[in-house]
Amino acid sequence: MSIVRTFLTAWRQASSRQAPLLAAGVAFYLFLSLFPALIAAVSIYGLVADPATVADQTARISDALPADAASLINGQIEQLTSAPSSSLGLGAVIAIVLAVYAASGGIGNLVTAINQLYGLQDTRSFIARKALALGLTAAGVVFGLVAISLVAVVPAVLDVVDVVPGVRLLANALRWVVLAGGITIAIGVLYRVAPDRPSTSGIVNRGVLIAAALWLLVSLGFSLYVDLFGNYSKTYGALAGVVVLLLWLWIGMYAILLGACVEAAREHIVTRETLSEDEHLARQRSQDAEVAAGLDRFTEELDEKLRH
Fold first, then answer.
1. Could you give the residue ranges of the DSSP H alpha helices within 17-125?
2. What is the pTM of this model?
């Protein structure tokens, strides 16, 4: 299947299966899961670093978000890190387990949405689905900690260690490249394990690359739009941060779900839409063949008349 046909099939399937609506639902549940995930991440980070530095380091991560959304997340992180360090350490195990379990609800709904767009009915048991959601959530928390290390800790290390001129610039560029690669692999793992179907393909495929590129581009574009032209504070007041964060999550989830549709089309997952399209193409090819045969007969008859 060509790239153009794959993307068109994916676009039709996303539209017919209400991908924007599914993305909105997933974004809402992820919003509810975001702050438990922050609790888990801050609790883990507080075990190995001074909690007072968490807010400063995570602020560099949130700089990639729209300003209103970043202020909402940074405010929550500051409240978490203002707790005594002893409470972060002693209650870490219980807090992390409860926070990961609470945050897994959003990931579980994302898995359900991906199966819906694949046209698959998830036949796995509740325990298997919950275990998958918990595993993906825990992996997401670990990925967030790695991202903080790349974006915030690496520059701090470079400030302390004397480096050769030019190495700092290269390191600053490489950390964003590595972060983008990590996002791509994370989406690939999600597409590999979320659909209830056997998969023999690799982790990084066409749909994964499209989803990662779309997610990065629309996130950057939306952040620039909100910071430069958007004025949600006048319309929504104190709720501006919540609204902007929900919109950012919705755009990102739509990109991921569209990429899932591309993967479904690439893997030739059979749905009503693909069957209908195949029948249409078969009829079109049959008509083209009849027209071509008619032209051949006409040409032969014309040549024969000209010879006589």
1. 19-48, 51-62, 67-81, 85-90, 92-118
2. 0.73
